[in-house]
Design brief:
This protein is mainly beta. 3% of the residues lie in helices and 38% in strands. It has one domain: Neuraminidase (6 Propeller), CATH 2.120.10.
Length: 307
Amino acid sequence: MVSTWLNSLVSGTAPTGAGYFGGGTTGSYVATVDKFSFPADSRTTLGTGLSVAEFAPAAMANSGTAGYFGGGWDSARTDTVDKFAFSDDSRTTLATGLSEAAYALAGMANSGTAGYFALGAATSGLVTTVNKFAFSDDSRTTLGTGLSAAVYYLAAMANSGTAGYFGGGTTGSAVDTVDKFAFSDDSRTTLGTGLSAATLAPAGMANSGTAGYFGGGDTGSLVDTVDKFAFSDDSRTTLGTGLSSTRNYLAGMANSGTAGYFGGGTTGSVVDTVDKFAFSDDSRTTLGTGLSAARSHLAAMANTDGL
């Protein structure tokens, strides 16, 4: 993490890492995990994907160590959490999964410390539950204070070392709510300024230390909107350039310090598009190589050595 970044500057080499898009549906549920290597953005597809084909899972990562895909729907909701070691992309499945089987959930992480899944649509119904996985031993606890409302098809992003954010989703009606969890004590506040519109099925990603982004979704119609939250004061602006197309059920991940990516989703038809936003000026490009197949209801996470 920080030492890796400093060492790279001294040696004159750029920090590397990769982002991963996993699961979802092409029309059929898939276990596929696509890997985009930073900084070239070249794509490979892992030989070992998720342990089962999953619709609407969530993901989070302990940068420099491992990434996690949790929950989803295969033939029913699942509590499975798959762990991918960044050293060799090998997969194991945690002995302790989610506290309840769930899909349409969201994940974010305090890299180096713990990852969080807000469970969404669980076996018992829509829930406010937030599970916390300690990266030291992958043990799971459940926060005493969950989300401010039971929602599913929400999104998440995090300012590692400081706070994580869960935004949007639906209670039956779309919401604009953004809940903030302080990593110091896992206490929850709700931002005075939420998303720019009540939004179902957006995606989230973050430039840790600077700003987080929620993109796309459905506000009654599909949108290309990207809302940016400055971590210094949680103020919201909306980018002048949004996604390259209106879509929902997409996923987001980021190479912190460099660029964020929104991939897949549906415009009415599933797409393989991956949009890249440069953090230096929030300009958007679209990768020449997208996902290995058009798909929606996927999840994403990233290994960023600069964290």
